[in-house]
Design a protein that fits this description.
The complex is a heterodimer of chains A (276) and B (195).
Chain A (H helix, E strand, L loop, with lengths): L1 H13 L9 H12 L4 H9 L19 H7 L13 H11 L15 E11 L2 E14 L2 E10 L1 H6 L22 H6 L17 H11 L2 E13 L5 E8 L7 E9 L4 H9 L4
Antiparallel strand pairs in A: 1-2, 1-4, 2-3, 4-5, 5-6
Helix pairs in contact in A: 1-2
Chain B lengths: L1 H24 L6 H26 L5 H13 L6 E5 L7 E4 H9 L5 E12 L3 E2 L5 E14 L5 E21 L2 E17 L3
Parallel strand pairs in B: 1-7
Antiparallel strand pairs in B: 1-2, 3-5, 4-5, 5-6, 6-7
Helix pairs in contact in B: 1-2, 2-3, 3-4
The chains are: A alpha+beta (276), B alpha+beta (195).
């Protein structure tokens, strides 16, 4: 809280000279907008200690670039403090670890352990339906591009209900002697033909998604929400969300933070990708 | 006269960017000093856009003048640029072509419209896209106030995240090929804020 007040005061001092011609209400709003983490880019810069209070970039070689004191000032204000999902103790441990002088941790937009989750609306066979698109950054040509890595889409998930029990239907092991005439019974009028696939078979929803787009059954409508998932710091996961609300604790903020142990990293990824 | 002044201003900016060229082209990444020069150029275009939006929205602006300003404003943008608009009451994004957005702004059903801009701009780093063009985002904030003669008024603050494309171009001056960096605006995301 004290850090927030200091940061707000610093911002206030910086900007008494600007905002001329603005109403008092607008000046008040302006202070809040300065405090807001306005872009993912600004979140990364504040996290890394790569900009001053006005948003001016520090570059490698500048005295204050990635300054430990600057980072300790910025990091506590990069957490969502209003919904109460993040324990203060866990946040303190996280800040202590990423600002450890012997091994400080920084974030990079191109890190392969960072991805975006986009909640979008489509019309599927004429009906409005939401989908989650998992986006990752990849190197391409002379630069980078965002690509769709995977998709979670309820109509596809409902379509595939694989029965793996001992009571599941099967094609008997002498089918080969009959020229696989058992296929007719297996596939004709069968709602779940996936039960005749190997145990390790997993449907590829992205391929289905692209197929349906190409076939014209699926049409993009709009984006509803975006968040980011970071597994870039060893043994930690955090989620970044945009908070559009009154006050100073707004913009792109850490909305979830978890210490990961053992195989929890993969479990968490599976959970986010809706693979459980 | 206004147009002449504007052309002069752009000439100066282009000249300014010309100076920036040689160091930038010598290396793969934009060095900090050149990045600042490009930022200034981009910001100048964003400020022009802000000014044009204020004029287009102003009910005192004559129809023919508004059309001329819309033409000028459109020239700031790359082809096919869109405005993606959402509000606090409607989180879904509605997409408009730039011209369509301006026309809707001009046609708003208020008797008085005031558009002011906060003295805030946030300029992102420049990222290189696959074709070698650099892309960045400048964030600015707009205050809108619309009042009807019957006393009804509407106010909002919108965040505008404006794409900027920075591309190396060539021109012939006195028979010599000179490279320079040009800035074009691209898609704009318009979000109503609760601030």
């Amino acid at each position: 809280m004290r850090i927030l007040a200091i940061l707000s005061l610093t911002i206030l001092c910086f900007h008494t000279s600007v905002g001329q011609g603005l109403t008092d209400e607008m000046k008040d709003t302006e202070e809040k907008l300065y405090a807001s983490t306005k872009q993912i880019n600004q979140f990364l810069r504040r996290f890394n200690g790569e900009e001053d209070e006005e948003g001016n970039r520090y570059y490698s070689g500048d005295k204050k670039y990635r300054d430990d004191g600057l980072r300790k000032k910025y990091l506590p204000v990069l957490f969502d403090k209003e919904t109460g999902y993040i324990s203060e103790t866990v946040a303190k441990d996280f800040i202590k670890e990423v600002t450890d002088k012997r091994n400080p941790e920084f974030l990079d937009l191109h890190d392969k352990e960072m991805f975006a989750e986009v909640s979008a609306i489509f019309t599927y066979k004429g009906k409005e339906t939401s989908a989650l698109l998992y986006m990752k950054m990849q190197q391409q040509g002379l630069g980078y591009e965002w690509v769709i890595d995977d998709v979670a889409f309820d109509p596809f998930k409902k379509l595939y209900k694989k029965d793996t029990s001992e009571a599941k239907r099967f094609m008997h092991p002498m089918s080969h002697e009959l020229g696989f005439m058992t296929l007719r019974k297996a596939l004709q009028n069968e709602k779940y033909p996936e039960q005749f696939t190997p145990r390790e078979y997993q449907p590829d929803y992205l391929t289905l998604f692209l197929f349906e787009l190409k076939a014209g059954n699926l049409k993009f409508k709009t984006v509803k929400n975006v968040k980011f998932h970071f597994f870039t710091i060893d043994n930690w996961y955090f989620e970044l969300s945009n908070f559009n609300r009154p006050g100073y604790n707004t913009g792109w903020l850490i909305s979830n933070l978890t210490k990961l142990e053992g195989n929890q990293k993969q479990m968490m990824k599976d959970y986010i990708y809706d693979k459980n | 006269m206004k147009i002449k002044m504007k052309l002069n201003k752009y000439f100066l900016l282009v000249a300014f960017s010309l100076v920036a060229v040689f160091t930038v082209s010598a290396q793969d990444d934009v060095d900090p000093r050149r990045k600042q020069a490009i930022d200034s150029l981009a910001l100048e275009k964003v400020k022009d856009l802000s000014k044009y939006i204020s004029i287009i929205g102003d009910k005192k602006t004559q129809f023919s003048e508004a059309q001329r300003v819309m033409d000028r404003a459109e020239e700031l943008f790359a082809d096919d640029s869109e405005m993606g608009v959402s509000s606090l009451s409607r989180e879904e994004i509605t997409y408009y072509k730039v011209r369509e957005y301006f026309e809707r702004l001009m046609a708003l059903n208020y008797d008085k419209v005031t558009i002011k801009w906060y003295d805030i701009h946030y300029i992102s780093d420049l990222e290189k896209q696959p074709d070698g063009t650099y892309v960045g985002v400048i964030t600015i904030y707009q205050r809108f106030e619309g009042t009807s003669d019957d006393g009804l008024s509407y106010k909002d603050t919108t965040k505008k995240d404006i794409t900027i494309y920075v591309k190396k171009k060539e021109t012939q001056i006195a028979g010599r090929t000179i490279e320079f960096w040009d800035v074009l605006l691209g898609d704009v995301r318009v979000t109503e804020t609760s601030a």
